[in-house]
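ugh ok so i messed up the first submission bc i forgot one of the chains. this is the corrected input, ALL of the components this time, i swear. 1110 residues overall. if the numbers dont match what u have on ur side tell me asap before i send this to the collaborators (the ones from the other lab, u know who)
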Amino acid sequence: MATVPQQQNQSTSGLHLMPLIVFGGLSLVFGFIMWAVLPALNVLPEAASVEAERTDGLFRVLMGIGGVVFFLVQGLIYYAAVAFRAKEGDTSDGPNIHGNVMLEIVWTIVPSLIVVVLAIYSYFVWIQNNETPEAPNVMYTTASLANEDASNSIVINAIGQRYAWNFEYITNDFADVLNDDDSITPDAGNRVIINTADLFIYAGQEVDLDMNTRDVIHSFWAPEMRVKQDLLPGRTTNVIFTPREPANSEGWEYVWVNAPVTIYTEQDFASDPLVDITLEDEPAGTPVEFALVDLEENFTSTDDVNWIRVYDERGREGFLPITAEDDWGRANRYRLICTELCGGGHGDMFTDIVMFENQEQFLTVWYEPTVDILSVPVGDPFELGEQVIESYGCAGCHVLGDLGWIGVVGPTMDGIGSRSGELAEESAEAIGNEVDPNAEYLAQSIRLSQDYKVPGYNDQNMPYFRSDEMSQEHLNGIVAYLCAQTVTGDPNDSDCGLQNWEFDENGNFVGDVDALVAELTAFTDDYED
Amino acid sequence: MATISVPARQPIKDTNPETRFPSLGELASWTVDHKIIGLQYAVTSMIFFIIGGALALMIRWELLTPELDFMASGQAYNQLFTIHGTVMIFLFIIPMIGALGNYVVPLQLGAKDMAFPWLNAFAFWLIPPAGIMLLLGYAIGQAEAGWTSYPPLSTVLEYSSDGQTMWAMSLHLLGISSIAGSINFIVTILNMRPKEMTLWQMPLLCWAVLATSIIVVMATPFLAGALTLMLFDRVAGTTFFLASEGGDVLLWQNIFWFYSHPAVYIMVLPLMGVISEVLSIHSRKPVFGYRMIAMSSMAIALIGFTVWAHHMFTSLQPALRIPFMITTMIIAVPTGIKIFSWLGTIWGGKIRYTSAMLFSLGFLSMFVIGGISGVMLAAVPWDVHVHDTYFVVAHFHFVLFGGSVFGVYSALYHWYPKMTGRMMDEFWGKVHFALTYFGFFFTFFPMHMAGMLGMPRRVAVYTHSPELQTLNVIATIAAIVLGFSTIIFLWNAIASFWLGKLAGANPWRALTLEWATTSPPPPTNFDEDPIPFEDPYGYGTEAATAYLDAIDRHFGLPEEGVRPRGFNGGVRVPTPAPSGD
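and heres the new structure output, hopefully the right one now
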């Protein structure tokens, strides 16, 4: 057939232009409303960095334009679904319309323009967010702050491993951060290194992290900073962001002071201190954190004392006195989450970013006290063990109630001091590695973790901690600390089988420290490197 | 050119003994009949759909609480989503596309079979062993590195079990199957059209399958290459992906996504073809902008090869991210053209609310949300916030479930009468649609929020953000509704096989050639060479009505109640003289 008769009446009624125009207009309004109300919807976490502010601006535009498209298309679908349904008894076909060149050109050109604009906008946000900071990780000393004459930059390294984060603060010119009375000696590289499980930063300071992984790919995600970067084996990657106090912040949630600290039940030095949280037995200068009770009204002053209402570690309310000359600081905690599948404990691989209000607080309450503590040689291996064990990422996989570890992938460390014999025996049966005494098992299972696995955990792969990753001193401390973790709480009940193992009724070590250290050191001497 | 393929008055041929549904024995054995192979694909992929869906429900159940409580360990959970993803992509959607392509494309082309019938059967028979191999991984330590299997998690033996090796070999077989099937489609579509059908008169499903097949043939060899390197690393001691020995983990990501991003279009383009068919037929109106839809499929196929690295926005060198952002945004344009063209198709039509039509409208409605979140993800600064979070999980389920699975359902409701000779029950079809539409939306929409607020993907625990539990509970409840809706569908599909109304040759009064033969078609598809109508979507013309009436008269009418009340096509319209000039 040469020609097909066409129905010719569709040119006016067939297009139904009026609803198109109405929905087009309405969708623009809807998109604008979406753009306008978005910040109030709380669909994003707090924006705690400059980058987050820019990204959220882009998000608003994307949602505004997305809102237009969403409303237009959904509206037209629903309108068409109702308006163009075949009426009961109407069995005819629709109009024979094959297209409309003008319309097709419009809906090709308009989306093209929109995506071009979005691409350009995204490009500028991206470029700004990734500008190499002028002064990354700058760390003034409190002394130089006063003079404004010196600066020092520290390198912050982030290390990912299954399933924990670890941060290294390496200060090259250590002299700047030390007080006069410090007895520290620098390491061979003239450096001071702090290892932490949390990332400590302060508002306003550009952070440029060098990141490496010990095993598989991990990914650094700080939702409140809107930054993410993978950690790739064999490469050093960087993540750059500038933290700041969120504009919509509810206030600072934590207060930091240095030990010794006393918390009172009432706003009055005369009242009884809250039992168990008088932290006077912490080494002097240890940074201590409390959660604030009421973010709005924290402070009441009596005479020269500011009273801050805080929670202690057990969640009880008390009053913390701050006198003018005391060092104290305020901080917020933000999440830091691994977002690249890294194994069975992937969901447990998260930690916190602690952001102080300003650099002075950061320095006086956390950084310098930490350096000071590190600089004082610790004679007691138990104390050293407790101090350093948290910086090795053990919390990612193991449980240890005393320190608040909740990892689920590895064997529990609760009461390990009472089970070392059992573990050593099982391991000897399963693998054939004999140890003597039982404490040696603990040492070996850290140094050569893959060769001394706990039966039942064969699928897990704890990293080796060879002497370049964990010093002999630290290993001794950690083994001693773990041996003291008994079921009863009394270190004398430990079955680690150490010769020099003697405690008084308060749980204080009363044996010969040097002999204990020598004994512990002997376990792993043979395996050095 | 003749517009009507058949003589005006012929006896009803429903009793033709050869036009029957294959027996179970025939379904389970080697055959070169493209229709039986299509059914084999369909049944196999539905079995894997059930398996993948069960795994998905277990994932949702684990996420009811922030702690690890349902699964025995994090690793067991990782196996869940690894196998869920792999099964749904490689053993459900892709074979289901094989099912539609195999069954419908030769019929739409008026061909007797595919170009290479033996190769066709071979391509299918690679799938069951591959699927069994994948599932047997559970016996030897299942793969647990996610369906993307990034090294070194997937290649270093300390971090993975032998199931990972089985996973790679299984995907190898599935890749061969895909390539063989696609070569067959390309040759069939380009060479076996009737002489009256030019490329521009081809049904849009054929266009979509052609575009898809070109992608498969060009992209899948890269998957094969990546899998080969992975197998070498795992079993032969090579170090392609081992950084400490000079390998590079980004090598895998680049090769894998060079296949797997185009694979996303492999999974959705044919279903877009389905939507083009269904929207036009069930709203009784020609496809709006036929050439633009056909060409946008080709444009997507082409541009789809330039966007792969947007999956690597957090691992790629920062300077390289911008070009991939631009290409990724550009690919939204042809997709937008399709969506607006579909809207133009139903606009002013006479929409018949069949289940097939509802699912096609559902596809439109849900896919556009996936499209919007896709453009958002293309913007690098936003992507680095939500990369590898539940925002991405929500996005690709809106595209692959809201898109592909809705398209699959639409296609099954639409072509079930052709495959079995009986109609599926419309009431239960509508119940199925309602439960799927709302179940789907409330399963996956809250995931956008969860991701933005701090929930990474592939985690069994989210104890760092317990406030996310509410969103997860909503998603889990909706997922159970979604699972229930699938049971309704399966029951409907099985029961209708015996109880459904007789469909006749052309229950929908569609113009494409698969409806110009009995349901199911005889072994050689057409008793005499069919002559296609000059326009596959030329509804609303007298010639089209005459053509459809002639089909009705020749093959007989469907049972009462299949068509709108009082409408029986050939009875209503006075018989036109078949014009043959």
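quick check: The longest helix of chain B spans residues 74-108. that seems consistent at least. The two ends of chain B are 6 Å apart (CA to CA).
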